[in-house]
Amino acid sequence: MPTLLLQISLKQWDKSQRGEADCILRDNLSTRHTLQSQAEFMILETPCLLDQNAINLADSNPTWSHGKQAGRLIKMGLQQNGSAILDRFLIHRSNDNRLWLSFFETPQNPIQVGEISDEWIEAKYEWRYRTEVNNEIFWQYEEVTLNVALAEHYAEDFFLTNQPFQTFYKDLK
User: Which DSSP category does 37 fall into?
Assistant: First the structure.
């Protein structure tokens, strides 16, 4: 039985880090990592592995962290029809029983990204949100990347050794 591979990576920075040098630094950080998780749950009757990585470039010594606590809490949920929501992404089954990835630009406007298969998709978006730290309010900027595939067999370097079949990008800032 194939496994649904979901690898989400978060790059976070603050408003002061929007210059050209900062942009080049962010672009040079890979959003493809070694899979460090195992399949832990099912989505649409398919075993699912969720691997989360994050780096906060506003930290004094930014390094990638891994695990469910890396970055921010990712919103996840199941819909009545079995479809799964992961942050702004929707994983759903079509009438012909194939898995698809869609993106919610707005709750009423999902954009179909592509079919999930053994040829993987890299879906990415950038946004900003208001946050409060030590009674100070500021804008947190974030690039969210979801690497997704449906693989019969895979190794921990799956996303490192293969190129994406399809890419998607949306700027919501």
Answer: -
Cα dist from 80 to 13, 15, 44, 77, 114, whole Å: 36, 39, 11, 10, 22
What is the rounded average pLDDT of the residues 65-89?
89
Structural domain of 46: 3-74+114-171
Whether residue 149 is contained in a domain is answered as: yes
Instruction: Report if residue 100 sits inside a domain.
Output: no
Do the bridges between strand 166-171 and strand 121-133 make them parallel or antiparallel, or are there none, so unpaired? parallel
Q: What is the pLDDT of residues 49-62, one digit of tens each?
A: 999 999 999 888 89
Tokens 């920075």 identify what position? 13
| Percent over 70 (pLDDT), the chain | 100
3 state DSSP class of 62? coil
Round to whole Å and give the CA distance between 121 and 112. 12
Residue 94 in domain = no
| 95-143 confidence digits (pLDDT tens) | 898 999 999 988 788 899 999 998 999 999 999 999 888 898 888 999 9
The helix/strand count (H/E) of the chain reads as 2, 12
Question: Residue 105: inside a domain, yes or no?
Answer: no
CA angle 127, 89, 2 (to 5 degrees): 140
- Determine contact, residues 24/11, Cβ cutoff 8 Å: no
Domain count, the chain: 1
Count of CA atoms in the C-beta half-sphere (13 A) of 84? 19
